[in-house]
Specification:
Elements lengths: L2 H14 L11 E6 L6 H9 L5 E4 H8 L7 H20 L4 E4 L5 H14 L2 E8 L2 H12 L12 H7 L11 E4 L5 H12 L1
Parallel strand pairs: 1-3, 1-4, 2-3, 4-5
Helix pairs in contact: 1-4, 3-4, 4-5
């Protein structure tokens, strides 16, 4: 991708964030990964109620760059190049981030490991999950448009297709079942952020 296109994409995504929280000396990158419907956005929203941070939700950011997304490889590549550059800029400016994206494969997570390390940020990895019957119900409700805040287009077919791509996270991570009370998991993440 041309540098000018990347710069324009990052600028568009950054402008959509609005007012950023006050910078901190050592920001955190909370990378929340999981299949569609497992509760990534829910987890990030609950975390944002406890600590000042910016949520970078890939589904929402995709639609800023591609109002009618086609979910092609080229679209994915352009989106995540811009997301990674934005993460880098925000961390270097002292902004804590919750990055909400499927990030199912280790080679997709590795650039974020590197960015956090280079920025001197705390890296906190969270994998969310939920029983298939709960996910099915959530995705069914998504298809009916019951939650206007839900920016994802992923449905049960996409969930099933993506299951084979789930790779174990290669570093210490927190596994959270979002069909249960997530308070203890949120407490643990906040403690790590404040250490």
């Amino acid at each position: 991708m041309e540098g000018s296109q990347l710069g324009e994409d990052v600028k568009r995504l950054r402008e959509a964030l609005g007012k950023l929280p006050d910078p901190v000396v050592r920001p955190s990158l909370v990378m929340v990964s999981g299949l569609p419907g497992t509760g990534k956005s829910y987890f990030c929203l609950r975390l944002a109620e406890r600590v000042p941070l910016v949520i970078l939700e890939s589904d929402n950011l995709r639609k800023l760059l591609f109002p009618c997304p086609e979910y092609t490889w080229q679209e994915h590549h352009r989106l995540f190049l811009a997301c990674h550059r934005l993460v880098e800029e925000l961390l270097k400016s002292g902004t804590t981030i919750a990055f909400d994206a499927t990030n199912l494969e280790e080679h997709h997570r590795e650039p974020l490991y590197h960015i956090a390390s280079q920025a001197g940020a705390k890296l906190i990895l969270v994998q969310v999950d939920a029983p298939p019957e709960v996910v099915y119900q959530r995705l069914r409700e998504r298809g009916m448009g019951l939650n206007p805040e839900d920016k994802s287009d992923a449905d049960w077919t996409v969930y099933n297709a993506m299951q084979s791509r789930v790779e174990r996270i290669g570093r210490n991570y927190l596994l959270v079942d979002t069909s249960r009370d997530i308070s203890a998991a949120l407490d643990k993440v906040v403690r790590r952020m404040n250490q």
